[in-house]
Amino acid sequence: MRIRIKFLLKVFNHAEESLQDASHLFSTQHPIASTVRAVINLEAAGTTGREILFQATSEEMIQAYSHVPRPFGTIFANDIFSSGIILSDTDFRQFEQYMNVTGLDIAIVGNSYLYHMRKDLVENIQAGVAQNMAENVLALLHYLSEEGSPIPDLTTYTPPTTVFFSYLGHFFIYSFTTAKILYTALFTASLAFVSLTYKSPVRGGSNWKALSQGTVAVIVGLFGTLLVPNVVAFLLSYVLGKGMSWFANEYSAIVLYAPAALFGEAHLQVLIFPFVSADARP
Question: How far apart are CA 279 and CA 184, in angstroms?
């Protein structure tokens, strides 16, 4: 017999910054924690813009999110956050780890420069931000609480094998298999296009030699864009003792690191230019 969802539980908790004590306490000691089947975690690390879906841990919850009126999320954000490269965390981890439930992690991140600063005030919240999040969450709750909801079947779940993203207000979902077919076809078409349209400036020049050397040049340039800004960061932190200079102003990071990135890319291109054959040069 299929059991419909019995209740919606709202957990308003604090103490996230002190190693998520409140969510951990609920997940491990609250008497009704074991009855939870899915979590929608709402966060704010900014004051403007649409809230972004940046963690989704099951196919069912991704499908549920597709029913919101104004979706805004991408598998790219999901993969970046779950990789650990962003040194941040949310209460969602406590729910997922200790209650073993699936769910969605959604956050407002626009103008995050004000986050936890003295200007992190109610009057700086953009009009409509809370309304937008509330309407999307309400649509989610309607879907998850109606007849045919996937919630009763979420006693166990497996990580999604789904690509998802929003574009122009529409939410697109397709499988990893479909993604591999699309990306392989696009890559093949790109190679065919280059092969058919490239004309070497040198008589008898090789298309593929020029292409491979150009690819190496791009990779070397990318390495330069990463190397030089990190050298600047090292000097600021350990030589000048000004490691937080990038936080002095909203645009400080651009001023400090964008020229360094451009310098690194251009300088390494200049260094490898003599080794590039004539038919691969611009």
Answer: 28
Strand runs labelled E in 85-229 = 102-110, 162-167, 170-175
Please give the Cα distance from 116 to 100 (Å, whole number).
30
Instruction: Choose the catalytic residue: 16, 43, 123, 135.
Output: 16
Convert the pLDDT of each residue in 241-279 to its tens digit.
988 888 887 788 899 999 999 999 888 877 776 665 555
- For every residue of 65-87, DSSP letters joined together read HTTSSS--BBHHHHHHHHHT-S-
Indicate if 16 belongs to the active site.
Answer: yes
Name the pTM for this structure.
0.79
Return all residues near 48 (Cβ < 8 A) that are at least 6 apart: 108, 110, 111, 125, 126, 129
Question: Is residue 36 within 8 Å of 9, Cβ to Cβ?
Answer: yes
